[in-house]
Amino acid sequence: MAHCHDTGIKINMPENARRIVLAGNPNAGKSVVFNYLTGLYVDVSNYPGTTLEISYGRLSNNVIIDTPGIYGISSFNDEERIARDIILSADIVINVVNAAHLERDLFLTRQIIDTGVSVLVVLNMIDEAQKQGLKIDTDLLTDLLGVPVIPTIATKKQGLAQLKTAHILAQKGHVDGELQQKLTHLADRLGSQGEALLVLEGDEVIASRHGLEPGDEREQIYLKRREQVNNIVGHVVSESSRGAGIGVTLGCWMIKPITGIPLLIITMWAMFQSIGVFIAGTVVGITEETILIGFYEPAVRSFIEQFISLDSNLGFILTGEFGVLTMTVTYVLGLLMPLVVGFYFFLAMFEDSGYLPRIATLVDRVLTGIGLNGRAVIPLILGFGCVTMASITTRLLGSDRERRITIFLMGLTIPCSAQLGVIAGLLAGFGPGYIALYALVILAVLVITGTLLNTLVPGKSTELLIDLPPLRLPRVDNVLRKTGTKSYHFLKEATPLFALGALIISTLQITGGLAALQKMLAPLTVGWLRLPPETATAFIMGIVRRDFGAAGLTDMALTPMATVIVLITITLFVPCIASILIIFKERGYREGAIMWAGTWVVAFTVGGLVAQMSAIFGGSSNTLGIPLVIAVFIAITISVLLTCRLLQRSKPGSGLS
Amino acid sequence: MTLGNAKRGQHVKIIHIPDENIRSQAIRFGIGEGAVVFCEEVLPAGPIVLRKNRQEIAIGRELANRITVTLN
């Protein structure tokens, strides 16, 4: 117990191997260094109790472990807690710092040095620092920190070669004398200076591991450390000219509403054009129609035909309308894969360029209205990639209340990339009226539900406090690597679920269950949603995966209005099986079940409202129907907003001031 | 005055941050109590963007309203 060197993750440690841990602030270039040092042989392990992935690989005889980007080691969020445990178990820490951001980054460096571990500092992005007119005295920095400092430009591979052996040079750095005394005193009892430091800094988890009360000296230690860092920076950094580059100017524009909102709209429009129009139309036309339906499916059918009759039950399951070998493969590879790749590509560019935190700042005001702060825009945008993955990233939000609201809103209103691609493809052909109807109804549901949740869910949300990293051009290799990894994960996760869905539908078809279900759901689909009975199939498929449901529509001949109604309903109702599982895991069974049931109720209520209203207002033509339906939804939204505002006003001590 | 009243282009000195966790995170970013920061942008009813050297931090309006500052 005295030696608590347990990181929690299972890593095969060869004998005599040392644990080299890579640590650094977000955007310091850690991942580039990690990929260079480990080469192709990287393992990924889930951190227990979380779904955060930790990568590790080999560096000669030693094991090198990556950690999430953090500003300090403490317990402010999950990422910090994980990084804290891994760093505390390290034999050597390679600390990657951004040379253009020393004031921020050296705080972590000093904290790691204070844990008493051997440290090597990688002074990365010296080219960027130079561009900003900064000159850094590396020798003096080495002296002041007491650990070796190696200047690098990781993206250009400069200085990285010597890192492969440089970890031997790592040493323990200078710790403030007064602090060292306290640490030594406490470390005698705990067996580790690092844990002693965290106990002194009031880390409850580490303190309770040792059965101690957390210390109350965090602020004192932090202030002293900040002072030392400012001191070091004052000595080693000399600033010559400071040119405000295009990046700084653009960064300002992204935040100011008057320029930021148009920029955001242009970005979204560019995304829609690339993914919804170009990929969903041109690229999918080639991959789905020409390659898979044109060549692959006939080939599979003629191959299977040699062994069994295509009309037999097994033949139908394998190669029929919903064939595991035909439809599954065509949908996954031909239809969804290109869309998913396109979406992850944009997402990686957002992440890499530093645009995401600026969007968070821009939309903060709007999100506070639904009980969130700007930071929640990150999971919400990621939700457009994959709701499942994004539900996990809600862990970066500051309170349980925000996680609850975000996860529900995401499950309800955010279509994932695969689904969005199909939706964009379907809607693009109908003209702007139907696109507006779809988008505004979904947006109205988001605003109404969010406002209601903010009024009804007890507790208080945290406020925005976010670092805006310097804006930079996304690096092609980084973007491509991220796109590749995430697309691969999508394939791995989606394919079995798709096959399962296809299997279920085929079985239902053969046994006559599908027709029975269609009949059973008829009052709902035909009566309430005013759709043809076959659409029930899309709903059933949608339970397995939402995009699967939407994809099923591409083959049905529906009127534009009917299509929009189905799309609205499918978007709002149950997220895919994978995301439901994650929601249950993240929120517990009771809350998860309520959320799941909630999405069904909302989906069919809203879908039905649109159907009924368009029938009443529009009759046979939709020129009048669409604007009227939109007007009704806007009216409902405004009245909900006003009611909630009044309710909050009458509640003393509420967030509105 | 509070940070929420700060105007774009002003230099302000942080006097008091009420919440302990926020205070610690602010120290990490170098904008703890006593730091002089530049008010880079004020979004209408939205966040305040601060700059300290090359470090930019966005702070939500309600939090900014609880942070005491003086003009510098």
From TrEMBL, chain A:
Subcellular location field: Cell membrane
Any one of the GO CC terms: plasma membrane
Domain FeoB-type G: 17-173
Membrane topology (UniProt): Multi-pass membrane protein
UniProt-annotated binding residues for Mg(2+): 35, 38-39
Chain residues that bind GTP: 24-31, 49-53, 66-69, 124-127
InterPro entries documented for this protein: Fe2_transport_prot-B, Fe2_transport_prot_B_C, FeoB_GTPase, G_FEOB_dom, Gate_dom, GTP-bd, P-loop_NTPase
Keywords attached to this entry: Cell membrane, GTP-binding, Ion transport, Iron, Iron transport, Magnesium, Membrane, Metal-binding, Nucleotide-binding, Transmembrane, Transmembrane helix, Transport
Gene3D superfamilies, per database record: P-loop containing nucleotide triphosphate hydrolases (3.40.50.300)
Superkingdom of the source species: Bacteria
Function: Probable transporter of a GTP-driven Fe(2+) uptake system.
NCBIfam families, alphabetized: feoB
Name assigned to this protein: Ferrous iron transport protein B
Lineage: Bacteria, Bacillati, Bacillota, Clostridia, Eubacteriales
From TrEMBL, chain B:
Keyword presence, Iron: yes
Domain Ferrous iron transporter FeoA-like: 1-71
Pfam family, one: FeoA
Sorted UniProt keywords: Iron
Gene Ontology MF: a single term: transition metal ion binding
Iron among keywords: yes
Protein name from the UniProt record: FeoA domain protein
Protein source organism: Sporotomaculum syntrophicum
